[in-house]
Amino acid sequence: MVYRTHSREVEELVLWHREQGHFSDKDICYIFDVSLSSLNRWHKNVDDYGDVIRPRNPIQGHPPALSAPQLGDLLRAIDGDPSMFLSEICDWIIISHDVGIHKGTVQCILNDCSYSYKLLCRAATEQDPDDCTIFRRYGWAPRGERAQIEAQFIRGNRYSVVEGLAVDGPVATRVVEGSVNGAELFDFIVEDILPHMNPFPGDMSVLLLDNCAIHKSDYLRQIVEAQGI
């Protein structure tokens, strides 16, 4: 007979007819399409456990890959650094608990713990010039929660470059820490640009500036025009 599964109701009904003696075991097996071995097994389960279905063995199944303390350590490590890749998590488990584990097993463990891989959100911390900003975009976090990591938003010294260009190429260049203001531009033109220029209509006799606010200086215009430029 091909192996078949039966509902609890069918198993209990079969045993009831057997206890009542309405039919022989052979007739019961024929009527309900069950095997004699199944009938005897259900009867034995009732005698031993009080139910047609034997209770599950509490130690049955494959042992967990990580113990409860090891799993707790793992989740705390991931909460501290949610950007770890699966391979890095495996390395951490080997180093911390001397347990070799496959990436697929780690994935299943995290899924069972309701952790998912999602877009990483950065939370700013105190600036530290020795640290770098993060570059990973995804990380681990419990389902329904944001994956967040503390990151150093580094902003070092900023420099600006101002340069005078002629038809033949650069005339003068100056590097300024921070932004270029009107006073810095005035000094650059007077000290670095005008000495290379000639009165109009000679070569390099036209000074062209755009419409930036720091370029609109009446005093600078007077100095430039006084030199015939």
Folded structure, characterized:
The structure is a single chain. This protein is an alpha+beta fold. It has three domains: 42 residues; 84 residues; 68 residues, no CATH class. It contains eight helices and five strands. It has a three-stranded mixed beta sheet. It has a two-stranded antiparallel sheet with strand order 4-5. Strand 4 and strand 5 form a beta hairpin. The longest helix is centred in the first third of the chain and has 14 residues. It is rod-shaped and about 130 Å long. It starts with 7 loop residues before the first helix and ends with a helix. The model has no long low-confidence stretch (mean pLDDT 84).
Q: Strand-and-helix sequence, N→C?
A: HHHHHHEEEEEHH
Write down the overall mean pLDDT: 84
Count the domains: 3
The share of residues in extended strands comes to 15-25%
* Backbone CA Rg: 41 Å
**Contiguous uncertain segments of 5+ residues:** none
The portion of residues assigned to helices is 25-40%
Strands of the largest sheet, in order across it? 2-1-3
For the termini, the CA-CA separation is: 110 Å
Biggest β-sheet description? 3 strands, mixed
The helix tally amounts to 8
Rough shape? Answer: rod-shaped
